[in-house]
Amino acid sequence: MNKTLALVKPDGVQRGLSGEIISRIEKKGLKIVGMKMIRMDGELAKLHYADHVEKPFFPTLMDFITSGPIIALALEGPNCVQALRNLMGSTNPNEATPGSIRGDLGLSVGNNLIHGSDSDESAKRELSIFFNENELFKYERSIDGWIIES
Ligand code: DAT
Ligand code: MG
Fold first, then answer.
1. For residue 111, which phi and psi values (nearest 5 degrees)?
2. CATH fold of the domain at 2-133
3. Among 9, 10, 35, 56, which one is most buried in terms of CB atoms within 10 A?
4. pLDDT number for residue 148
């Protein structure tokens, strides 16, 4: 089963929205197979956002993402990369549809509450930054048959 990485960003933690965000992920049916609270440092931020290091907004992004603790989640489920991206909504909360996390809870692109990997390839790379193999759990949920078509 494919995996993806979600981060509740510092604004989500500070605003007391971690539970709301994680709840939406759980209600969708995605399985949490790893979870930890950490504070990213500059080195981790550069590694995680390697594709954005040259972008004009990178210094702001770096300050923001290292400004407080985040919650990292390893998620599993069929098409979980796309499923999470759909739950998140567009990068800019002003363009994200109502019903999505960013569309319902955010107002600015720099404070958009949640990260989600954008492809299976980035998910693999990003998960390996935040989790060791022994921090990822393999377990069955008895409700899986009601969520996942066999
Ligand atoms: P996403 O988080 O939807 O995958 P991204 O990978 O393009 O979006 O960008 C990473 C983060 O950088 C994004 O969540 C918020 C910030 N960001 C992106 N574009 C921005 C912009 N034009 N101005 C300010 N911050 C931006
Ligand atoms: Mg991205």
1. -120, 70
2. Alpha-Beta Plaits (3.30.70)
3. 9
4. 92
Catalytic residue among 3, 24, 85, 115: 115
Ligand number nearest to the C-alpha of 125: 2
In sequence order, what are the residues at sequence separation of 6 or more whose Cβ sits closer than 8 angstroms to the Cβ of residue 77?
1, 2, 28, 29, 30, 31, 83, 147, 148
Span from the CA of 86 to the centroid of ligand 2 (angstroms): 13
Name the token pair of 109: 């692109």
Domain borders along the chain are: 2-133
pLDDT along the chain (150 residues), means of 10: 96 98 98 98 98 97 98 98 98 98 98 98 98 97 92
Active site residue 115: yes
Q: What is the value of pTM for the model shown? A: 0.98
